[in-house]
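Next up, a chain.

===
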Amino acid sequence: MQNLVTNTPAKRNYDFIDTIRCIAMIFIVSEHSIYFERTDFHPTGYKELFYIATIQLSKFGTICFFMLAGFLIGDKFVDYTPGQYLKRRVNNTIWPWLFWSLLFVFEPNIDALISYHTLIPHYDGTSYWLVLWDRLETTYLYTIYWFIPNFLFCITLLLIFKRFLYNYWFGAVLFLFVIFYTVNIYYAWIPSGHTIAILGFVFFLWLGAQFNKNWEKVNSWMNGTSVWLWWALSILTLLFGVAEIKLLKQLNNNDPYNSLRISNVLFSMACFFLLLKIRDFKLIGFLKPRETTFGIYLIHYIFVVFLLSRIFNPFHIDVDHLPFIVLFLYQILRFSIVYFLTLWIVMLINKTRFKWLVGR
């Protein structure tokens, strides 16, 4: 079988990739900031539909990230051997990820040191080490820190099968895993959370590589389409996503917002092409996407979990009884605090010798 990896076009400038990645990260931060635990929030009627829509609107980021990363793989194979590329990715991502994820794990210890001058928090009737193990498991399997290990696994898998990178049969096999996970959400043959769907995202990495290899054709095709087509498809698939989430909640599904729902796969694709069609977002340059996006991913969740509660808990806000418009403003406020504080901190770190902590 022909190895098409070596036939990848010469390196080109894809500034729009950084722009789309920045926008996707903004929506990822939004999703985490405006989400309320199901035990704390029981909306009904139009308020429930609005809340579901705001979450669904933010759900395209994860799949977009895999496609964007796959888009860049072909060019990187020109500059590096597969082994060099993987080593470079690990060096640039694993150490910043390890630092911030461990900071998240040991935040209770830091809080205990500040509040009670002891490094070991006290848990009534429970061994600290059992609690620590639970925090490690939760952090690396069920929080945003799942992404880097899964991402590196996906890249490694493509490197192992690099001779088939541009083979459509290989892509079809990877797509079957996506289908399996979308159906598994309903039947739970295996744990259905997208954060532990190890093989569920490799297809999107592969798909991004196909877009890169066939970029001239893809770009020409996109130029022949109307932006209104992609707006319409994005809105229709958004509504489809809301309907599927509502259905999963009625079925008492334990993960109705799963990123691998068929509706979200379609929504993510529509949003990807919409952003690809618009492409030029001049204001995004102010956010310095290439310098800040990875750092925002690493840090923002710490603020979501530990800062927002400290800010708002003293006010005893009952989100169930907030008027519609107040709920919307409350969501915007939570997002703004997390995003802009994280952005500011990342920009500050980037000006120091510790800028490796926020990677690239």
Remarks:
- The mean pLDDT is 88.
- The chain has one domain: 5-358.
- The longest helix spans residues 324-349.
